[in-house]
Request: fold
Amino acid sequence: MANLNTMKIAEARDALRKGDVTSVELTEACLSAIEGASALNAFVHHTPDIARTQAAAADARIASGDAPAMCGIPLGIKDLFCTKGVPSQAASKILEGFKPEYESTVSSKLFDSGAVMLGKLNMDEFAMGSSNETSVYGDVVNPWQATGSNTPLTPGGSSGGSAAAVAARLCLGATGTDTGGSIRQPAAFTGITGIKPTYGRCSRWGVVAFASSLDQAGPMTQDVRDAAIMLEAMCGYDAKDSTSADLAVPNFEAALTGDIRGKVIGIPKEYRMDGMPGEIETLWEQGREMLREAGAEIRDISLPHTKYALPAYYVIAPAEASSNLARYDGVRFGHRAAMAAGDGITEMYEKTRAEGFGPEVQRRVMIGTYVLSAGFYDAYYNRARRVRTLIKKDFEDVFAEGIDAILTPATPSAAFELGKSFDDPVQMYLNDVFTVTVNLAGLPGISVPTGLDSAGLPLGLQLIGRPWEEGALLNTAFALEQAAGFAEYPAKWY
Reply:
């Protein structure tokens, strides 16, 4: 069986159980693909010995008949997840040399289910970025290229390494995290599927914190079925995480019937932004028609506080980041700056943080510290929190009126050139315009690839679901996926 690394999770699961392929063979195919794709800079810490050991154990487990769905599936793990004995730097110099003595709950759940870790994946530093250009490891390159061009494109961020690795078929799936769209935006830029579950569905324990009230882990996969399979393995209550929901985990794959007859899909008028590219508007209209033809009712809705979401997010997220990142001081772990004669502990703190944090992290820590300061706490942070409550209520109101899911664009454009927006932080922040509301409200959201732009680059649509109803959201996404029939891929990397 050729090109084993291109298999989908569901396809590989079935082949493993039939004995048509082994996890060791799948793993070796992925390791070989990774070696041949160093130009993408997706994998930054390679763990071939761990992968081979886990694959052999998975084959034995499958042979014994004790094999969960993810058993034997080779994955990439975003560098934000702490993995025992393996570098876990959050793509930052300040965590250089840090090897945790513990495993994040999400990666532990995946490994307990028999999944195989190929290595750690590149990302924006501390998950702060929309283009994967803030990483200490260097930029990740999108495996897609515009027609007739060799110009390197962003894979999106912060989970850009995860997106690029799945799109180039270096792994069958990858973990991502989403604070303001960091799963859904890179998924859209690379033509894959990414779901951010309801806040509290996946444990945050052992995931390096950016903004604790917004961060949520989720899977990045080739399609919706694979996302359902992987998400189920990642979810579950965790007593170590005070925000973890003590709810049963449904069989998400079983929900994928494709039948959405009678479902009501909301189209928010506030997402028709000024200057929206015509291709995005056309794709959105096509998505509406696809869902209508599948039997859903399409209804215009209003989410009136949407226009305040981006500024509120960029107050709340930096505020929480400044608090979370205060722990990186050079004392207990990670990078410590060289000291000059006469330097005291204050100088050590200052030099370590100046050397260890990149410009984007420094910018957000400074903004966060400013909005939390005594003179500005009420003017900025408390006001942003009130806006967040209003945004959450907007969604509660439309769901109470019978809306089952909301359809929006996933991004305001296709993947852009690396370096194009990097020097303009405000322009970069606008990439999150369609996604941050989901994090502010704690809702599940999924990006599904549905078409190509005029340059041959993938475009995605976003579906937003009711809290804790990931199964229904995945089924609506499955119906959209079937209708769109997106089957394109970056051929250069196959």
In short: The mean pLDDT is 95. The domain at 4-262+405-493 is CATH 3.90.1300.10 (Amidase signature (AS) enzymes). The longest helix spans residues 377-400.
